[in-house]
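Folding Query — how this chain folds
Tokens — whole-number codes for backbone shape
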Amino acid sequence: MSRLVVSLIVILVVVIGGLFLLSSRAAERPVTQVEKQVSLANLQ
């Protein structure tokens, strides 16, 4: 194979591997609800 074909294959493997690693890192965190105590004076 020529150097051009080998270079393109290596670049393609690196790009696909990078995209795979980035996609597996971006995990969404679950939403947490925080409850605060409010005095009744603030509600009126």
About this structure: The mean pLDDT is 84.
